[in-house]
Write a structure and sequence with these properties.
- The complex is a heterotrimer of chains A (269), B (298) and C (351).
- Chain A is mostly helical and 269 residues long.
- Chain A has ten helices and no strands.
- The longest helix of chain A is centred in the N-terminal third of the chain and has 34 residues.
- Chain B is mainly alpha-helical and 298 residues long.
- Chain B has two domains: 39 residues; 242 residues, MetI-like fold.
- In chain B, 78% of the residues lie in helices and 1% in strands.
- Chain B is built from twelve helices and two strands; from the N terminus they run αββααααααααααα.
- A two-stranded antiparallel ribbon of chain B has the order 1-2.
- Chain B is globular, with a radius of gyration of 25 Å.
- The N and C termini of chain B lie far apart (61 Å).
- The radius of gyration of chain C is 25 Å and the shape is elongated.
- Chain C contains nine helices and 20 strands.
- Chain C has a six-stranded mixed β-sheet, sandwiched between helices.
- The relative contact order of chain C is 0.12.
- Classes of the chains: A mainly alpha (269), B mainly alpha (298), C alpha+beta (351).
- Chains in contact: A-B, A-C.
């Protein structure tokens, strides 16, 4: 009896430990961002929020943040629209090679992102000579490169959402006289709204976090936030960069809470 | 005639729905990828960029040079260890999640997913603050007197393995969870009812039925780990090189596109190959288990 | 004048023939049931009439108009779905109003027509609720109101009662029938439940493997099923294989059963309903078909007792007797009893 009690306590403890492990690095970042010290030394000399005050003065981080925001929002919108259209074709039509096409659209998930990023850069770089105008680095090539890695998520999530819509609901609408477009607007859209929101948020997050794809496609003057952080980390790791990171953590935490409202997170992955 | 026309309108509808996406993925992903991998057969001429050719020289160079081979070997070893660690740590959590009726479940899942969404570079900031010479771990070890001098933790394979495990663990948990959740709890109850111990239930019910999840999870996590870029770069540095950062530096620093492309091909093929072998082994093992099962029955 | 006509309709799915040369005509105001097991083609036929499937060959006419190639949203039919298919994000009112909205009916008219339809199914107070907030029976009524509000020429019902419990099913059954007769709307009712078909329909179409096996009024189908399949489907449980010798049927095991066949026939099979068989009658001389059998199994079923009895030849049949009669006429398992039936209870069947 006592042995099984002990083993139960033991397994609880083990699970708690693993949770600690999962959240440890994020917790560390947030903790350090409130250190008073210039450098990371334990124990800290005291706590303050003055690193956050300095964020506004560091123009390049603010610029990188807004640049990332712009790229990610646009990549999100484009991959939502394309993802919705493709998912409609995949779920509502029968055609030859459908399975292959579906795998093809999801394939960017399998290839290492760093390779995809290099490949896109080299291809655009070569096409540049051939076309005669600037492709890399440019805002649009970066954005579309991001779409390549966010698209698999929107296709997956929206397809799943569309598959979840009971087909007889659509038939009922058609039976009552609705056209294809009307059925889409009055029946399908309201039913998949949660998956659309989730797909949008995840597309945004995966774009916003992305580092590998962007590496070769950004210019020194206009970089994304993860790359700006990476460049700083190569130089040094201090409470200031922890504060920058915490801002990103907060943005993503907020988005995740919204996404969870619309669909359970466990259903996404 | 009518049917023909109908097929045409359908083809038109499908085309206009999925055409733009297909075009984008072709132009921005497939063609660039093929174009890049084609470079692996070109010749690198220092100072002259590269010459178009059909040669296996770059592959030869990679596969005969112990330096490059050690990068591949290390990548495999680190990915393998991280996968194993993630499985050992992830299984109990996934099982706990699959069985808990706690109202906190959705919050727990959020806690698991959250670090994954935060981004690797930010987690690496956290790891550095733990592993560095003045980091929390060294401070702790010094304080309790286990060591007199700070020990080297950053730029060691162990640190990279731990950091990568941390990155992939959520994926492992979520994949396992989705499979374990579908195992009917009544099966376990039946086993307990028939006098099985906790361990027997785990060994003879949960794990065999969870095999598909274990397979999917380990495979997915292994691929993610062997392709890791940011973590080996930041935590491992030049001392613990892995394939992804190494091939990137071939392209961006050495400007040896052909060798970089060859490394990319090798990474992709190696990953596919080891996944296939792994699947075969598991298949054979589960076939043996099934054969044993029928023997007992017979 | 026929309101709905199916003319040599053929439907294939890949290589398999789902509907094979179906011909049927339905009169105005009639309620016709499609009865058959799953996979018999009843739903496929209904979906072709609704316009969700296109026949490979043949024509479908509604009110003398050939609608074969007209899409579902342009057809004057309304379908009540098996799972009701109520729009979960719309209120009951909005659900019922949907068809009118698609037809661009004015706001005021929509309102009055929706309220009228809802009151027809006694749900006028539920307009503001959402489908998940009402019971299964109420959802069923909403689905009916939503179909009827557009005044369709043809009402199609796809196993609409199969998701309800037994008691509610009976209630809804008579409600649908009353409503259908009051409105005089031509209807097709798909079901696999013989009792439902018998109670509801003007005519029953029995389908098997994409072909019509029998069409007739409920009583006709029940009293004189023409084939083994139909007989089985309307609850006949005892069958004998054999051949006719003048008006007597000789089973393969040599049992001689008298029938009321007037002329020579070549049916190879007969059926006898369990409830047409009498046990130990006082006047057994009155019956020509009398057999001594052994009781093998007695099953209590409330108002009736079911007996499984064994002929000396080894054939077994099922006999139903009223419980009351069983109380007065005690015998137990293993006893010999007499069973009798009249010649006109014998149903000659084609196989």
């Amino acid at each position: 009896m006592s042995q099984s009690y002990l083993s139960r306590i033991g397994s609880k403890l083990f699970i708690l430990l693993i949770f600690g492990f999962i959240t440890l690095p994020v917790f560390m970042v947030i903790w350090i961002s409130f250190f008073k010290n210039q450098l990371i030394v334990f124990p800290p000399k005291g706590y303050s929020t003055h690193w956050y005050m300095q964020l506004a003065d560091q123009g390049n981080f603010a610029m990188a943040f807004f640049f990332s925001l712009e790229v990610s929002l646009l990549a999100m919108i484009i991959s939502l629209v394309l993802g919705l259209l493709s998912s409609l074709a995949i779920t509502h039509y029968e055609f030859r090679g459908k399975q292959t096409l579906q795998t093809f659209l999801l394939s960017p998930l399998v290839v290492p992102a760093i390779i995809t990023g290099i490949a896109i850069y080299i291809f655009l770089f070569k096409s540049e000579n051939w076309l005669g105008f600037n492709l890399v680095p440019s805002f649009w090539s970066l954005t579309f490169a991001h779409v390549i890695i966010t698209l698999p998520w929107t296709v997956r999530l929206i397809s799943a959402g569309l598959q979840g819509v009971n087909r007889s609901l659509e038939e009922a609408a058609v039976d009552l006289g609705a056209s294809k477009l009307q059925t889409f607007w009055y029946v399908i859209m309201p039913s998949i709204r949660p998956s659309l929101v989730a797909a949008g948020i995840f597309a945004f997050i995966f774009s916003f976090n992305n580092l590998e794809i962007s590496l070769m496609l950004v210019s020194p003057r206009q970089t994304t936030l993860p790359i700006e952080i990476l460049n700083y980390v190569f130089w040094k790791v201090d409470p200031f960069i922890a504060a920058v990171s915490t801002v990103q953590i907060i943005v993503i935490a907020g988005l995740m809470l919204i996404a969870d409202r619309f669909v359970g997170l466990s259903k996404v992955f | 005639m009518k049917i023909k026309k109908q097929q045409n309108t359908q083809a038109y509808q499908v085309g206009s729905l999925i055409g733009p996406t297909t075009l984008l993925v072709t132009v921005m992903f497939l063609i660039p990828l093929l174009n890049f991998l084609r470079n692996s057969f070109n010749v690198f001429v220092p100072g002259q960029f590269m010459q178009t050719a059909w040669t296996l020289e770059n592959y030869h160079k990679f596969l005969t040079d112990p330096y490059y081979l050690s990068i591949l070997g290390r990548s495999f070893y680190i990915a393998f260890s991280a996968t194993l660690l993630a499985l050992v740590m992830g299984f109990p959590i996934a099982y706990f999640l699959a069985r808990t009726k706690s109202k906190w479940k959705s919050i727990i899942i959020m806690l698991i997913v959250f670090p994954l969404l935060v981004g690797n570079i930010i987690r690496d900031v956290g790891w550095i603050s733990l592993f560095s010479g003045t980091g929390l771990i060294n401070r702790f070890l010094l304080d309790i007197g286990v060591v007199q001098e700070p020990i080297q933790l950053l730029q060691t394979p162990m640190a990279v393995i731990i950091a990568i495990t941390n990155v992939v663990l959520p994926y492992m948990i979520l994949t396992l969870h989705s499979v374990l959740e579908r195992i009917d709890p009544a099966l376990e109850e039946a086993a307990y009812d028939l006098g099985a111990s906790r361990w027997t239930v785990m060994k003879s019910i949960i794990i065999p039925l969870g095999i598909p999840g274990i397979m999917a999870g380990t495979l997915f996590v292994f691929v993610l780990s062997i392709n890791a870029y940011t973590t080996p770069l930041v935590i491992g540095g030049s001392k613990v090189q892995m394939m992804a950062p190494a091939l990137y530096s071939q392209i961006s620093e050495v400007s040896n596109w052909p060798l970089g492309a060859a490394m990319a091909v090798i990474l992709i093929v190696f990953t596919l190959l080891s996944s296939t072998i792994y699947l075969r082994i598991i298949e054979r093992m589960s076939m043996n288990v099934r054969a044993a099962g029928t023997e007992v029955k017979g | 004048m026929a309101e709905v006509v199916l003319n040599h309709v053929i439907k294939r799915f890949g290589n398999s023939l789902a509907i094979n040369d179906l011909n049927l005509s339905i009169d105005k105001g009639e309620l016709v049931s499609f009865l058959g097991p799953s996979g018999c083609g009843k739903t496929t036929t209904l979906r072709m009439i609704a316009g969700f499937l296109e026949p490979d060959e043949g024509d479908i006419l509604i009110h003398e108009e050939n609608v074969t190639r007209i899409p579902a949203n342009k057809r004057d039919t309304a379908l009540v779905f098996q799972n009701y298919a109520l729009f979960p994000h719309m209120t009951i009112f909005e659900n019922v109003a949907f068809g009118l909205k698609m037809r661009k009916v004015s706001k005021e008219e929509t309102r009055s027509r929706v309220l009228e339809a809802l009151s027809m199914v006694q749900l006028e107070k539920f307009g503001d609720r959402y489908p998940r907030q009402i019971s299964g029976g109420q959802q069923q009524r909403v689905a009916l109101a939503r179909a009827l509000v557009v005044n369709p020429r043809l009402l199609l019902l796809d196993e609409p009662l199969s998701n309800l419990d037994a008691k509610l099913r009976q209630e809804m059954r008579s409600e649908i029938r009353q409503l259908q007769q009051r409105l005089g709307i031509t209807s097709i009712f798909v079901t696999h439940d013989q009792e439902e078909a018998l109670v509801l329909s003007d005519r029953i179409v029995v389908l098997e493997q994409g072909e019509i096996r029998q069409i007739g009024r409920p009583q006709e189908v029940y009293d004189s099923p023409q084939s083994h399949f139909v007989a089985d489907f309307v609850g006949v449980r005892n069958f004998f294989n054999g051949h006719f010798e003048s008006h007597a049927f000789i089973t393969n095991n040599g049992i001689k059963i008298f029938t009321d066949m007037k002329q020579k026939s070549d049916f190879k099979k007969i059926g006898i309903r369990s409830n047409m068989i009498v046990v130990n009658p006082n006047n057994k001389e009155m019956y020509i078909n009398t057999f001594k059998v052994k009781v093998e199994l007695i099953t209590y079923k409330g108002t009736i007792i079911e007996l499984l009895v064994l002929f000396p030849t080894g054939d077994s049949i099922v006999v139903e007797m009223p419980s009351e009669q069983f109380k007065q006429n005690t015998f137990s398992k293993g006893d010999q009893i007499d069973i009798c039936w009249r010649p006109d209870s014998v149903l000659p069947l084609s196989s």
